[in-house]
Design a protein that fits this description.
Number of domains: 1
Helix content: over 70%
Strand content: under 5%
Number of strands: 0
Structural class: mainly alpha
Number of helices: 13
Distance between the termini: 30 Å
């Protein structure tokens, strides 16, 4: 049984999926994985989140149906598949050792890197210049998307660096982003369901990332995703997201640092309460 504070963290993570899918909160979606890691541990967290992300993608896909540049898929997806295989292999290497420390470290580093990307992205995109997508550029970007999405469901910056220099309209950019991540997340599903007992190969985890235990947790959290979408739509209408987004980036940065350095926050608070 999870402690009440961890239950609250898990509920917030599921709501954030829906809110971010509604287009509110900038990097809010990236915050879901570090929060779930703090609640459930790295290996269970990424397995619990994937069905929720797939559900959230369906809501977004319906809303942006046809408002995308579909040819981006043929440039990115070959690299994505290879990246997912590499990501699963790396996760298996870490998880099969019986320690989640390496996974926590990678997810924490990706969270901090995401915040750094948001701070410096204007300079990055000026340096990139405009380009037409092609296979030569799409393969390494797809590879990076597959690896980072497998580890932390956090490939947003990689895909943004591929899409933004194409100078798409806002609607076309968001719709294309939705389409890409719908494909990426569903590509991950069969790999997340495999383990050594299924294929008997050493590069798979000893236990699948999506299993009966994680599916039960995903099912409990699933109703919060459409609720989050509903909240996100209303937040978009009523509030400016500038300061909210800054708060999210700060929260993401702090969560990333916690995963990297594994601060003993409970011990710190306990020591201060006893003084």
């Amino acid at each position: 049984m999870l402690a009440p504070d961890r239950i609250l963290v898990a509920v917030a993570a599921a709501l954030f999926i829906g809110i971010s899918k509604a287009g509110f909160g900038g990097g809010l979606g990236m915050l879901t994985t570090p929060l779930c890691v703090l609640a459930f541990g790295a290996k269970d967290a990424i397995g619990i989140l994937l069905p929720l992300l797939c559900a959230g993608d369906l809501f977004s896909l319906v809303h942006y149906w046809g408002k995308w540049k579909v040819e981006n898929l043929k440039y990115l997806l070959p690299g994505v598949v290879l990246g997912v295989v590499i990501g699963i292999w790396l996760i298996a290497r870490f998880a099969n050792r019986g320690s989640s420390r390496e996974l926590n470290l990678v997810i924490g580093l990706l969270a901090v890197a995401f915040v750094a990307f948001q701070v410096f992205k204007s300079a990055i995109f000026r340096a990139e210049g405009e380009f037409e997508p092609n296979h030569r550029i799409g393969l390494p970007f797809g590879l990076g998307t597959g690896i980072t999405s497998t580890f932390a469901h956090g490939a947003g910056p990689v895909v943004s660096m591929f899409l933004i220099p194409q100078n798409l309209s806002k609607t076309l950019f968001v719709g294309t982003n939705v389409l890409i991540f719908t494909w990426v997340n569903w590509i991950k599903v069969p790999f997340f369901c495999l383990d050594q007992s299924v294929l008997n190969v050493a590069w798979l985890p000893a236990e699948s990332l999506i299993n009966l235990r994680t599916l039960k947790t995903s099912a409990l959290l699933l109703p919060l995703v459409p609720l989050g979408v509903w909240m996100g739509v209303r937040l978009n209408r009523r509030f400016s997201e500038t300061w909210f987004t800054r708060f999210i980036f700060l929260s993401l940065f702090l969560a990333g640092l916690q995963l990297i350095f594994n601060f003993d926050l409970a011990g710190w608070f306990g020591a201060h309460r006893t003084r």
